[in-house]
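Duplicate of earlier report; Aromatic ring-hydroxylating dioxygenase subunit alpha input re-posted below.
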Amino acid sequence: MREIAVKNAEVADKVRELVNNRKPGYSLDAPFYASQEVFDIDMKEIFGKHWIYVGVSPDVPEAGDYMTVKIGEQPILIVRGEDNEIRAFHNVCRHRGARVCSGAKGSTGNLVCPYHQWTYNTQGNLLFAEHMGEGFNPQHHSLKPVHLKNVAGMLFICLAENPPADFDDLVATMTPYIAPHQVENTKVAAQIDIIEEGNWKLTMENNRECYHCTGNHPELTISLFAYSYGFAPSEGTDPGAEAYDKMIAQRHAEWEAMGLPSKEVERLDCAISGFRTQRMPLDKAGQAQTMTTESACKKLLADFTDSALGGLSFWTQPNSWHHFMADHIVTFCVLPISPGKTLVRTKWLVNKDAVEGVDYTVENLTHVWKQTNDQDRLLVEESQRGVVSDAYEPGPYSPYTETLVEKFSAWYVGRLKANLG
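Output:
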């Protein structure tokens, strides 16, 4: 045990040195992307202590519906109870540790461990355990709970005993932004999981900038204004930029008057539970992130009557980003698998009453982000191949187009520094 403790202390010292030597405004040192030791600390200090986005309430639409997710080596079960409350538990039977539910999703009256049929209700209480003898108290063997917050239909869990309390600030700020889209009244029309052969931080860094978009995302940029991404101001007055800023102000005023909060809130590197949001206009028809920029679903969300409500973006540290439009929602969840392997899970939500083949097609709904995700996967994988090279050294971020990448890196390094001491 002493040898293990000494080794753990040595690893922590190495990571502290990396953290302390990190140069602001530059990409991270190679071990942050490639080291198993750093990855293990990431899983403990980042994914084990912060609020992690895992899914949406429509993943478990009815009482008894459940979904499973894995955070590192921690199997988690999320279930909607008979009281309609959504709860999270460690997906570990209190008998001998088998997973209670092995499928990705399902529906059940009670949760029955397949090994010895220990049976729990959807509140996690042990109801039945045969052959346990006198003196056995089922109340002492309930499923172990995991903290869960439902943010207007967006589900976050925290594995820590004492989760970051400032997440309540995120909930208070984001609920008015998300609630008009009525996530609870949607359904998951499609889900695509891809495995990127790269470190999870490269996935997140890639998402936090659109410097790369012009040359790599022809489908996505159809619906984006050129001034909304990859834009470096030139010297003097730029009439195009001024007109774009004026349009933003006008659209924000219109949307705010409709009860749709739109202004930017940016707390990516100044909060433990870092996040950012803003509603931005879309180009051309301005309705959705599709090849035509028109709605992908004829039946709009909630009680919307206007199809051109732009796109509400919502980013969270450390593992998610989301786009809310009038007709559909796209959510993204990033889950690390190993130092060089990351799961990216994308879900498309539409009105729960929309009919596939009548109101929408999955191909049209998913096309833009399916292509974009695959393009990003290649970029992340090329970056991973480079950062493990002896030639790699941290390079400077653009002060115009990569400021939010710096905020992600600063948040990450800051959280390691705080957690490691």
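The first helix runs from residue 2 to 21.

Merging into the original ticket.
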